[in-house]
Amino acid sequence: MRLADFNNDDFDRGRPRLVEAAWRIVEGLLLNSWLPGSTWRVWLLRRFGANVGQGVVIKPHVRVKFPWRLRIGNHCWIGEGVWIDNLAEVSIGSNCCISQGAYLCTGSHRWDKETFDLETRPIVIEEQCWVGAMARVGPGVTIGEGAVLTMGSTATSSLNPGWVYCGNPALALKQRNTTTGQERHV
Amino acid sequence: MRLADFNNDDFDRGRPRLVEAAWRIVEGLLLNSWLPGSTWRVWLLRRFGANVGQGVVIKPHVRVKFPWRLRIGNHCWIGEGVWIDNLAEVSIGSNCCISQGAYLCTGSHRWDKETFDLETRPIVIEEQCWVGAMARVGPGVTIGEGAVLTMGSTATSSLNPGWVYCGNPALALKQRNTTTGQERHV
Amino acid sequence: MRLADFNNDDFDRGRPRLVEAAWRIVEGLLLNSWLPGSTWRVWLLRRFGANVGQGVVIKPHVRVKFPWRLRIGNHCWIGEGVWIDNLAEVSIGSNCCISQGAYLCTGSHRWDKETFDLETRPIVIEEQCWVGAMARVGPGVTIGEGAVLTMGSTATSSLNPGWVYCGNPALALKQRNTTTGQERHV
Fold this sequence. Notes:
Strand content of chain A: 25-35%
Structural class of chain A: alpha/beta
Shape of chain A: globular
Largest sheet of chain A: 7 strands, mixed
Oligomer: homotrimer
Radius of gyration of chain A: 17 Å
Number of strands of chain A: 19
Distance between the termini of chain A: 40 Å
Order of helices and strands of chain A: HHEEEEEEEEEEEEEEEEEEE
Number of helices of chain A: 2
Helix content of chain A: 10-25%
């Protein structure tokens, strides 16, 4: 690859550069700070175009690349230090928990091309999912309804609804059981 | 799960909200800062109730959720960027090295219940352990005396004394050998 | 191990303590900040002894332990939040992409010795490599020309040229194919 030949002019950033620059300042000084409080974080994200539902909690040290490509349903939790690197749309259904330190990555590169072209693909997290602490989710991944990605695991392909995934790459470990209380603490 | 039904009123935070708020400020501005120096970090942690032994080194960018639930023995090292997320007690024996970027997680959720109840379990790290850089330790884990968790590995269950663990979930790789000098650099 | 007996007096830090202290301040306030801009970051690194080529992009939140032990070729990208923990030399060839959150670790400890001696070993990343987001590279690792380490993976031994590695420890997954465009999105 020859990174000098990389050309990203066709990438649609979704907002004028001035808006993006303003967001970088707001993110750097406020959203990503240690300052407590969730309501004002939700307000800031909405002001910059995020679609955020009711009852959403956003903890300190969170990073969001493009708020205008973020959709969060109702009653979600975005944990401390979560990094939503949404060059492409990230959509999080209602009643999801994205735990502390999780990383959602929508950008990859064509490693098979000399020009290492950027390739972005959306992430869809359906309702009632749990992305564990320090977990990583790759471009184009859909996390099916109710699926769980355990702490520190890396999802490089989509996860089936109602299953628990672990490892790097994350593999199906067992079905999530919401009735017995037997299966937990992975 | 229905996160609107989540109820954490029974969780004992261990200190009045005002003390916790003060700690968040101290942590955000000082403990977690880039400022060099270990002695004053130890002093701050003790002021907020941590039980910290002699000869302990605490590097910059460290986070501690509740200092009043932290116990560190003598001659331990807490590396740069370590995150001790101790909703429940974290106890670190003497002569332990917790390397840079490690994450100790004491909180989980009942994923089998609609109310997604918080469930906290203590972490015990016995003497002479080494938690490698960027390693993750889950709730309820005991790391047996002298065990090693390698860089970037994730311990979701307890580790036997004197063994070296690697992977996610971390599996026993080999015995730690403190005499031959053959086994190292994993 | 007895960390009270640890002795690091023989470790050559490469610069006087005053220079190192100055760098810590510059790194803490500037290099590692959210402030946008790459050119001035390259300039700072060079001022402190780094050998940085032409067309190098360095994103915000980057950490470098010792700039005087850093060599970066031409047209490289150092992503947001990359942590170059270079107690020993880190050498990055031209046309490499070190993605966001990656961690390059040159220091280990003799876990077989009571004195837990520090042992540092250089990292060599040859030309046209891609170290994925949140990937970890251990001491003494050479990443062969054109190799890829996928997101969140941990390289604890050297990677062969032209192969794609995944997991912890990272294992060879497939050959990188720069002609067909079939193999991507791991």
